Amino acid sequence: MSVMLDKGDGRPVVSVTDARVSFGAVKALDGVTLEIGAGECIGLVGHNGAGKSTIVNVINGGLAPHQGAIQYGHGSGGHSINAARDAGIRCVFQELSLCPNLTIVENTRVMHRSLKGWGWRKRGAALIESKLQEIFPGHSIDCHDAVGSLTIAERQMVEIAITFCEIGSPVRLVILDEPTSSLDTRLAEQLLAYVERFVRDGGSILFISHILGEILSVSSRIVVMKDGRVVSQRPAEEFSEHGLIEAMGSVVKSREARTNVQKTSTASVLAAPPVRGRGLPFQAMKGEIVGFAGLGGHGQTDMLVGLFESRTGNWLRAGNPEVAFVAGDRAVNGTFALWSILRNLSIGILPDLSRLQTLDFTREEALGQTWKDRIGIRTPDMNNPILSLSGGNQQKVLFARALASRAPVVLMDDPMRGVDFGTKQEVYAILRREADAGRTFVWYSTEMDEVCLCDRVYVFNIGMIVAELTGDDVTEENILSASFQEAA
Ligand SMILES: Nc1ncnc2c1ncn2[C@@H]1O[C@H](COP(=O)(O)OP(=O)(O)OP(=O)(O)O)[C@@H](O)[C@H]1O
């Protein structure tokens, strides 16, 4: 149960005035003023690197702006992580922050220090279990499991549930930084319904997302950021999807349509038998974009990893890879956290950039410049650390790593996590061009719009492929119906 908060005192939960933050030459915040009142759901949108996570860190007390003022409506005053917590402000970060070696209950205790004393484990388990049930009814997460054993979607669910738990002090404002990026349609809908209930009861939400449909449906007010500034803020009903895209500085293009031309290629480049002898087999043809759909955690990632491992065991052929992989869980198996942006990109094709077994730095620099321009990696210098990039820009580097390789097949595990609208359109166009030139893509996505761009789609349910849809049959209705049908 959530606590009904007093909406009536009129104090904003937080006011930020003229906040400025710079990282070297990059002005991450260039004079941002923002106020969040009780019972408001603010949608925050902007391109990758617009400054959204930076304003979150300022509100959350983790980052002191170089100029400007932050005032909390409740609590003990001042500006720090503790002051923000006292004021009832909580945050679910884009880069999930749970400790993988601890159980869910132990993580709950790490986040809520007042959960202590005799029997804390039992009380913690009851609290987190009921919050998970309240937000994601029907979930199958065991609170005594170690976080490291969970899928990325389950980690996202757990972090959200822990954040909303009321232990000790009331929760007044929850900042959700791309909370649905790993959730499938059903889980995302459950979360949006919970957010609406929370706001109706007087709580406040700052909701950041690149999925404009959900921003429009859940927000009362929408704030648009561009290059460290707020460029527009209005009641949600005054925005349309086109209006939002234009305010962000992206160009509204007609959707990159599926060709609907039946692929004539009969050259199978990748195949797998039915999983454990059940369901349908998998096959991908030269030049096809094959989608994996279905509710999250139903075997899509396992199949992608299996396909990757089946084609990457031969080290003698490492210079001539058969497949490339774009990881969705970038922090765990995508980025090399201590390396530069450039090295994170070039690692995929070092043999192509080398002469006489020695890396040619000029060619490596040229590769970096090409992909920086082609996919819009926002950084003043590709030699900066990868972690200096915003989340979406890190994901672009992983894309570039795979696309820059000569691998004829690219496997993609929900790869658009955190990528902004404009870049997504660019990437869709690149995928289509490369497929037309003969490259094959196998693409698992939790976003229905993306699945519907594929030439052919396999729907997963209970660990196996239960349906194969082609051409005009690739529709949201058919995908959902196969996702929920009773598997034989
Ligand atoms: N620790 C850091 N060191 C250097 N630059 C940084 C650091 N953190 C953020 N930046 C830069 O500040 C800018 C704003 O980043 P921020 O993470 O706030 O963007 P964002 O709007 O959240 O993007 P995304 O949608 O990709 O998450 C970016 O150009 C980013 O590269």
Automatic annotation (TrEMBL):
<protein>
    <submittedName>
        <fullName>Sugar ABC transporter ATP-binding protein</fullName>
    </submittedName>
</protein>
<keyword id="KW-0614">Plasmid</keyword>
<keyword id="KW-0472">Membrane</keyword>
<feature type="domain" description="ABC transporter">
    <location>
        <begin position="261"/>
        <end position="487"/>
    </location>
</feature>
<comment type="similarity">
    <text>Belongs to the ABC transporter superfamily.</text>
</comment>
<dbReference type="InterPro" id="IPR003439">
    <property type="entry name" value="ABC_transporter-like_ATP-bd"/>
</dbReference>
<keyword id="KW-0762">Sugar transport</keyword>
<dbReference type="InterPro" id="IPR003593">
    <property type="entry name" value="AAA+_ATPase"/>
</dbReference>
<feature type="domain" description="ABC transporter">
    <location>
        <begin position="14"/>
        <end position="252"/>
    </location>
</feature>
<dbReference type="Pfam" id="PF00005">
    <property type="entry name" value="ABC_tran"/>
</dbReference>
<dbReference type="GO" id="GO:0005524">
    <property type="term" value="F:ATP binding"/>
</dbReference>
<dbReference type="InterPro" id="IPR050107">
    <property type="entry name" value="ABC_carbohydrate_import_ATPase"/>
</dbReference>
<keyword id="KW-0547">Nucleotide-binding</keyword>
<keyword id="KW-0813">Transport</keyword>
<keyword id="KW-0067">ATP-binding</keyword>
<dbReference type="InterPro" id="IPR017871">
    <property type="entry name" value="ABC_transporter-like_CS"/>
</dbReference>
<keyword id="KW-0677">Repeat</keyword>
<dbReference type="InterPro" id="IPR027417">
    <property type="entry name" value="P-loop_NTPase"/>
</dbReference>
